[in-house]
Amino acid sequence: MKFPCKYIRYFDQELHTDFILIALELCDMSLAMWMQDKCKRQLAKICHREILMQCSKGLAYLHEKKIIHRDIKPENILIVVDTTNGKVCVKISDFGLCKQLPVEKTSFTLTSHSGSYGWQAPEVLRFVAKNQAETLLKNEL
């Protein structure tokens, strides 16, 4: 088998009333699994820097294409290991919350919060706190 490309392969989708099932390639593990020591024996020789470098390059590529992921967390970083030579390929997954910037823009105006609790950017958390404070103040008036 040829070592997988940088992108998660899409196979099919099935629409249901309340959700969509999407068939993607099966990866060996998530970064979360590796961090929780569930798969470290399998990746004992893999350098932390290599995983971080590939994640960074993937994010840089998305940002070059003006795509903002908005839900980067260990569970959404997938790892594939080539068993013949031990090389690792890191892939970013779960683009359900992503947004693409219009060509003429370089950033979004934050109008709502998104992302997984515990993994939100500081500016998103400040936005949420500010909105909650404003709502409480309005309710008191």
Automatic annotation (TrEMBL):
Residues 1-141 form the Protein kinase domain. The keyword Transferase applies. It comes from the Eukaryota. Pfam families: Pkinase. GO terms for cellular component: IRE1-TRAF2-ASK1 complex. Keywords: Kinase, Transferase. One of its GO terms (biological process) is IRE1-mediated unfolded protein response. InterPro entries: IRE1/2-like, Kinase-like_dom_sf, Prot_kinase_dom, Ser/Thr_kinase_AS. One of its GO terms (molecular function) is protein serine/threonine kinase activity. SUPFAM superfamilies: Protein kinase-like (PK-like). PROSITE patterns: PROTEIN_KINASE_DOM, PROTEIN_KINASE_ST. This is Serine/threonine-protein kinase/endoribonuclease ire-1. It comes from Orchesella cincta. The lineage of its organism: Eukaryota, Metazoa, Ecdysozoa, Arthropoda, Hexapoda.
